[in-house]
Amino acid sequence: MxxxxxxxxxxxxxxxxxxxLANMGETLLDVLGxxxxxxxxxxxxxxxxxxxxxxxxxxxxxxxxxxxxxxKIRERAKxxxxxxxxxxxxxxxxxxxxxxLEEIGKYVYGAxxxxxxxxxxxxxxxxxxxDYTINNCPAYIPELVEVLKHILKGMPYAVPDHPVCVECKxxxxxxxxxxxxxxxxxxxxxxxxxxxxxxxxxxYGCRGMVSNPRENAAKDVMAKYKITPAMIAxxxxxxxxxxxxxx
Length: 247
Ligand code: SF4
Ligand code: SF4
Ligand code: SF4
Fold this sequence. Notes:
This protein is α/β, with parallel strands linked by helices. The chain folds into 2 domains: 5-153, NADH:ubiquinone oxidoreductase-like, 20kDa subunit (Rossmann fold), CATH 3.40.50.700; 164-236, no CATH class. The protein contains 10 helices and 5 strands. A 5-stranded parallel β-sheet has the order 2-1-3-4-5, with helices on both faces. The structure holds iron/sulfur cluster (3 copies).
């Protein structure tokens, strides 16, 4: 039986998620045994397919050209995967949405800013239908492997919708709030096994917000540690500025 044809593409991003994949080590050999990679600019120059069984798209839509390109990829792909936070939720690119586009165009490009047309940042699902989502910055390899297994079996994958704190407690970390540091774990989707906190860092909210954050519990925590809503909102905007209906 022919192996599924898999292609990788990037829009506005740092390509760190593709790098994660390329650095998977022995697991990558297992993956390559199951699929045919037909396009992957970061690791090979060949392109040998016009259509794809699975297209992984990294990065956000931040201009008209990216929108056009994404729509063409969608037309050619049976399955489309939003690969990493930039693609899944807008990620750090979403911070642009906090500013007037003309103003930041001038700031970055000076008098020639009109030569570099731009648009508000959008995650892929706000432009085309997305079949699978990998919400992390950068992609978390165990989840990437899990999503790939679901794709190959034709099964849906649901991004976890409980907070990072659940995983953090299972990992027996000392809570960052107890150390006097604000952490986005209580409102951020799990699935990374509390990666950052395990490594002595805070959660920055890179996986996007849980759909039903416990507001009362959050208010209790904020009151206990004297944290203002504005402080939390500013931290959440680092990765979560493209939420539906949020300007
Ligand atoms: S999600 Fe993070 S690592 Fe991946 S492309 Fe975007 S900025 Fe880079
Ligand atoms: S360190 Fe962060 S993720 Fe862990 S329990 Fe505390 S708030 Fe939650
Ligand atoms: S701990 Fe938070 S910031 Fe770190 S990978 Fe997980 S969701 Fe992202």
